[in-house]
Amino acid sequence: LSVGDYNIAFGQGITASSGLAFGKSSETINIRRNAQGILPYRSVDENLFLRGGAATVGFKRIDFSAFYSNKFIDANISAYDTLSKEALYVSSLQATGFHRTPNELEDKHAIREWIYGFNIGYKTSSFQMGLTATHTEYSAPLIKDQSDYNQFDFNGKENWNVGIDYSLRFQNMVAFGELAQSKSKGIGYLNGLLISLHQHLALSVLHRHYDRNYHGLMSNAFSESSRNINEDGIYVGIEYKPSKKWRFTAYSDHYKFSWLKYRVDAPSDGADYLAQLNYKPSKKIEMYGRYRFEQKSINTSTEEVVDYLVAQTKQGARYNIGYAVTNALTIKSRVEWVGYSETGKSKDNGYM
User: Fold this and answer.
1) Contact status, residue 17 vs residue 117, Cβ threshold 8 Å
2) Is the torsion defined by CA of 241, 244, 246, 249 positive or negative?
3) Which of 52, 228, 286, 320 has its CA 20 to 30 A from that of 179?
4) What's the whole-model pTM score?
5) Could you tell me which of 318, 271, 270 has the C-alpha nearest to residue 26?
6) In angstroms, rounded to a whole number, what is the distance separating the alpha carbons of residues 280 and 330?
7) Which residues contact 187 (CB under 8 A, 6 or more apart)?
8) Number of neighbours of residue 327 by Cβ within 10 angstroms
9) How far apart are CA 59 and CA 122, in angstroms?
């Protein structure tokens, strides 16, 4: 039972997952979300939590969770009711928590947000499955300033999401995934596989698809973008541990966006690669070397009649070493290079 501020995390995060979640990293195998249900809220962020009440009741292999949230949120108000001074509609929802300027103070607690829903989960030692449904409503409709790239984004006063998730363990493999739909009829889904190929070698594979009109207002699933919308991608990661001292990790992620994005005036694609080698010669010393390469499309920055797309490339190399002087004190040192380039422009470099 939770009364007050709390977070929820069900399935793989496509239907409902408030709070923060990590994406791609050097931990290339850890791509599966471990749904923890209702969680206590322990942070100071002003937006990424629910406020109200939630409870889970368990009976043998079945858990039933229900939650309700009612709180004010920040929003950019576009029009006021001249008598009540309440917002008639807003152009965006603000999640920064900043209230430093007169305009930011006007956005503070501009509208009320209601969220409620439930989850039913079934679990055995090797299989689990869940059904999640959520409903979100605002006291004033969200009406965004229309552009070509955002015409399929959420607009309105209310939204609902329904999703089914699963996880199956068989010998040295774990398969997992989730399928969800929003009020707009947009679909979002992902499927993943974790395989232990050898006692020293592991493999992870994940495919995701989010429609350009899938509206997951509490979605927080694996993706390249910050939102689970307008994306297809396939991710492959490996981890190789030849000994206790050495560990090699790498991933490859290829993705495409079937519709326009901000500053990308055409369908586009991209790729992201990372390789890292860790070496721990003793309990006190640990070091690693890393290389990362990412390329995607962006509008040309030159003055043209048509904003055609050019390749944007980012790459970086890093060497990091840490020495544990005592159990309470560790000294670290790092050298790093980052390169940035766009087609038709000179390269930029940064060193640290």
Assistant:
1) no
2) positive
3) 52
4) 0.94
5) 318
6) 14
7) 179, 180, 181, 209, 211, 214
8) 6
9) 10
CA distances from 28 to 51, 143, 172, 271, 324 (A): 34, 39, 17, 16, 25
Q: How far is residue 345's CA from residue 341's CA, in Å, rounded to a whole number?
A: 7
How distant, in Å, are the alpha carbons of 91, 209, 267, 316, 319 from that of 351?
40, 36, 33, 10, 12
Percentage, residues of the chain above pLDDT 90: 88
Q: Are 50 and 67 in contact (CB under 8 A)?
A: yes
Q: Which of 187, 166, 173 is nearest to 123 (CA)?
A: 166
Backbone angles phi, psi at 247, to 5 degrees: -150, 130
- Residue 85: count of CB within 10 angstroms of its CB: 7
Please, what is the end-to-end C-alpha distance for the chain in angstroms? 48
Q: Is 73 left (phi over 0), alpha (psi -120 to 50) or beta?
A: beta
Task: Enter the tokens of residue 65.
Answer: 């969770």
Instruction: Provide the β-strand partners of residue 40.
Output: 6
- Tell me which amino acid residue 319 is: Y
Q: Are 264 and 287 in contact (CB under 8 A)?
A: no
Any residues with CB less than 8 A from the CB of 19 and at least 6 apart, and which? 7, 9, 39, 41, 43, 48, 49, 220
pLDDT tens readout for residues 128-187:
999 999 999 999 999 999 999 999 999 999 999 999 999 999 999 999 999 999 999 999
DSSP for residue 105: H
User: Which residues neighbour 147 within 8 Å (Cβ) at sequence distance 6 or greater?
Assistant: none
**CA-to-CA distance for 308 and 232, rounded, in angstroms?**
22
Q: Position 3: which residue type?
A: V
